[in-house]
Amino acid sequence: MRRTALLCSLLFLAGCSSVGTPDSLRSTLTRTNNTTATPQALNYCHGGGCVYTTRVKFTDKDWQNISKLFRKIKTPEAERSALIKATQQFENLASTQASTSTDKPGTFSGGAARDQLDCHDEMLNTAVFLHLLQNEKLLKFHTALGPAVRGHFIFGWPHTAMALQDTTTQNIYILDTWENPLTEPPLLLPENDWRKN
């Protein structure tokens, strides 16, 4: 009977998942010393588990190019499209400064080399970017929630990315920059689709 209970508990945990809250976003920013981040000064994580941080600075022109993607947004769907493009721009600009342009998608592609990012690094950097967008009042239809986690070693490795909520429908979406190379747009999926991915 105890073995059955233990097995059921393990199977339950294997399917565990969580989505952060605005409080967990603040906590995430604190861990990377990014609570006061601005487009002109933010810490960018790399090396796996944020072993390394590089101070990244965007020029006024860089930030204007990102900001203009959010002008004239009238719907949550349009904002999500802009968010995909803006996040890819952010990643490309930051990776040039942090010397991580050779980052390969997937935690195990490049090991823990200085020029590689695991999903934890990617989530932390995405958290800072969403924080900047919110501070600049560029997001009208979404709120950053904090880290989302899927998988817990059993039936697959744990994986984390940033969650945000559509404020018109309360639906949760996951912005995941880990699965695609820098040359491709990041994933922005409904939470349930991300969990199946």
* Biggest beta sheet summary: 5 strands, antiparallel
What's the Cα radius of gyration? 17 Å
- Could you name the ranges where pLDDT drops below 50 across 5 or more consecutive residues? 1-16
Helix and strand composition category = alpha+beta
How much helicity do the residues have? 25-40%
Strand order of the largest sheet: 1-4-5-6-7
Q: Number of helical runs?
A: 6
Count of folded domains: 1
- Average pLDDT taken over every residue: 86
| Spatial separation of the terminal alpha carbons | 34 Å
What is the tally of beta strands?
Answer: 7
Shape, per Cα inertia axes:
globular
What share of residues are in beta strands? 15-25%
User: Which series of helices and strands comes N to C?
Assistant: HEHEEHHHEEEEH
What does this structure look like?
Helices cover 39% and strands 23% of the residues. It is α+β, with helices and mostly antiparallel strands. It has one domain (17-196). The strands form 2 sheets. The chain has a 5-stranded antiparallel sheet with strand order 1-4-5-6-7, with helices on both faces. A two-stranded antiparallel sheet has the order 2-3. The longest helix is centred in the middle third of the chain and has 23 residues, at 76-98. The chain starts with a helix and ends with a helix.
In brief, what are we looking at here?
This protein has helices at residues 2-14, 22-31, 60-67, 76-98, 119-135, 191-196, and strands spanning 17-19, 42-46, 52-56, 142-152, 154-166, 172-176, 187-190.
